[in-house]
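Hi support team,

I submitted a single chain yesterday and got back a structure, but I'm not sure I'm reading the token output correctly. Could someone confirm the output below corresponds to the sequence I sent? I've pasted both exactly as they appear in my results page.

Thanks,
R.
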Amino acid sequence: MKRMMKKVTATLLTFTMLLPGAAFADSSQKEDVSGHWAKEQLSTWIDSGLMQGYPDGSYKPNQPITRAELATLINRTFNLVEVNSSSKFSDLSVQDPFYQEILKAVANGYMNGYADGTIKPDSYVSRQEAAVMLGKAYGLPLQSALGSSALSDVKGLPDWSRSYVNTLVNEGYVKGYTNGTFGPEREITRAEAVTLLQNISGQVINKSGTYSNITSRNVVINQPGVTLEDTTIEGNLYLTQGIADGDVVLNNVTVKGQVIASGGGENTVHLQDSAIRELLVNKLNGNIRLLATGSTNIDKTYVLSGASIEEQDLTGAGFLNVALRAELPLDAVVRLSGEFERVEVDAENQPTIDLIKGLIKQIILNQPAALQVGEGAVIDKVEIHVEGSIQVTGKGKVNSKDDRIVHDRGDETTGGNPSPDPNPGSDSSDPSTPTTPTPEEPGQEAPAFTNVSVHDPSIIKEEDTYYVFGSHIEAAKSDDLMNWSTFTNGYTTPGNKLYGDLSENLAGSFAWAGENDSDSKGGFSVWAPDVYWNEDYINEDGTTGAYMMYYSASSTYIRSAIGIAVSQNIEGPYTYVDTIVYSGFTKNDAKDADSQVNKKWTNTNIQGLVDSEVLAGPNPNWFKADGAYDNAQYPNAIDATLFKDEDGRLWMLTVPGQAVFSCWSLIQRQAERSIREKTGRPLMDV
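Hi R., thanks for writing in. Yes, this is the structure output for that exact sequence:
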């Protein structure tokens, strides 16, 4: 009986330490934290309410941590929701104070039971066990179990832990001991556990409000009502279950790792003017709305649950590639609204894709899916890699002639087969009553269209084919101006259809306008090209004639450049020639936020014009009183349009609504100069 009472007392003391309201130790009572090697990490977690003390005012940082304690710290970090299920473990009952914490850990996949049917909540956690639990909880991409490690004892670890430990070591989340070992079987202390959690979590935002300029590698947001702005995250951003059905706003945020969205409601996770490399959507109930606005660019979106993915008022690329992962649950519905480059289905439970409005340029069905296409919406291209039919409902269009696409009778879907009439040759009237069919006047079949989306189009004709080139490296072609097909692959690099290795080829323009820079953090921004056939252009091989691509590269709304790339094939690839027009330069040294580019005018080609005495010096009218670029008087270097005047001289118009100037009007408006046909450069070029 005494042994049982001791166990109950120990368990209650442990759980008392875990309760959010059990902060018995104030700042004056942190005797066992003051002077500790992990004082900074412990104080951060204590002050934020993520770690609580014991009734005697201590925190016991050197004491080994139990499985229940570590689970509670992880659950509190993510603010995980309660689980409505019962225990399947023989040593876990509903009366246990840590009952819900263990169920949360199991439900979220980072804690498993043992072969004997137990979960062992009171057992101490070894360092390798902690690595596995945290690696799973944070969804860290595992490094090879055979990979090298800076710590000598990692290579000999068992298969179940080696990859997780290797990942934590090589990513710098754990350093090991001074003797160069990890100590996998040693019990991890409470201080070590908090330090490891701090290293992986980075900043944990667990209060509503506006936060900016965060510098931690990773960020966790576990409460609704949070606005994060003006921040670059080198690692991952976790939008956790604790957000529930509330709102989160990301404004001018760049995430170079992943955004893991497991919280957020039907109201919105709002992505405004942000750049995200990968977005993982995994909300338990599927009620999550993600809205991209402004210059937002999300390279890849992986959908693991139901979701609404929308675009509004975009100037950026929005959701480029959306993939429905195999883990998508049964009866999941993914709602799309906007323009999507590519949607790929690997989900095994036949989800429904509801294109409410907008365009899917290409959908790839590696697994069956039901397609619902709203009125006015278009799916432009369908690739089917499964057996059986694909059911389509709605009044939108699916531009495919594949017979496996079956749509409801009366829908405005192009291609495929209509669903068979269950009672052909009859209507809903009484079959005993003869009916006389009403003759229909002969009509004219409506023309078929195949739509594409190319923003800021430049139109050019080669022989019998029409081409349009537009922003974000999009282009399409048509033989009849009614049915269009794309032949580009967006910002893909290397292997870009128009530019090859985009980063290397256009480096001359990106040196000014920025690659992964300022407003284009996380990628590129190539805009509004004009393609012009120049029969006089002299190619490197001595031949004449080339297609000239006058493109815009931009990093902010005024720091831009117009460059030239040429190809003898209209469909590319185009090779960089020069950058000829700059805007957004300043009188003195200056840099934009999130940029290392010095904007001083001497870093453009204007310095060369001054050195060669084409210009006497910088025009003082280019600048405002504070030395900034006066974009109210001098236009942005975008939207080039080439044309010849009555005398056959080649000119360029920049920025809609501006007067027609020679190419160098941005530098000196009074200069009456045109473009040299043999090089494509302005006549003022040196």
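A quick pointer for reading it: Residues 202-407 form one domain. Let us know if anything else looks off.

Best,
Support desk
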